Amino acid sequence: xxxxxxxxxKGIGGRDRRYDLSRIIDVIKAExxxxxxxxxxxxxxxxxxxxxxxRLIAEALALPHQQYQLNVHVKHGGxxxxxxxxxxxxxHHSISLRYQTKxxxxxxxxxxxxxxxxxxxxxxxxxxxxxxxLWQAQRLLGHHLFLEGSKLPALVAGDFNDWRNTLAGGxxxxxxxxxxxxxxxxxxxxxxxxAVGSLDKAFARGLIAPAAHIFRGSKATVAxxxxxxxxxxxxx
Length: 236
Fold this sequence. Notes:
By secondary structure, the chain is α+β, with helices and mostly antiparallel strands. About 20% of the residues lie in helices and about 40% in strands.
């Protein structure tokens, strides 16, 4: 099974600042994922031509099961996270990760009925400060909707905004998660055109992940300000 997680930056290129959602779709299609975790997906916002990006992405990828999570409102629309799957959801929840008065953020928590059995999947986009990220991780890991899947194999991935990789040896490891994106020097994903930061990460519990990589195709270096992370895995 293959996961792709990608901060698509609303479909706006990180270097040319040009909006072109087709580049994002081409990058995702090139890796043929079974699960897709997206962050910064616009819906009905002027900068992205008032497009309904969740609908356009879902139609283009032909992954039959999708959930969209609107986190930040912008006039009559906004942006947020999106989860797409080749297989159906057994359950799906949205958990707010808003810290104090900072920008609204949230996590998508789903149980996906894969051919190898149920998988708990978490797609999130964490905050910019270390204190905010620590609080957000604590909130998720202690939330009753997340704990409902505590006996399931699990995959947590997305844009961690964690430049110093501080979450790796702390809360996540205490809850049985292993970082799949290590050493971090091999997983630099930001900025896309000259990646120096390992911001897009994946952690797993109860999974075998023999391969993971940052996709560095020529189109990926211009489509967004992040590069996508790809993880191949199977349930133990």
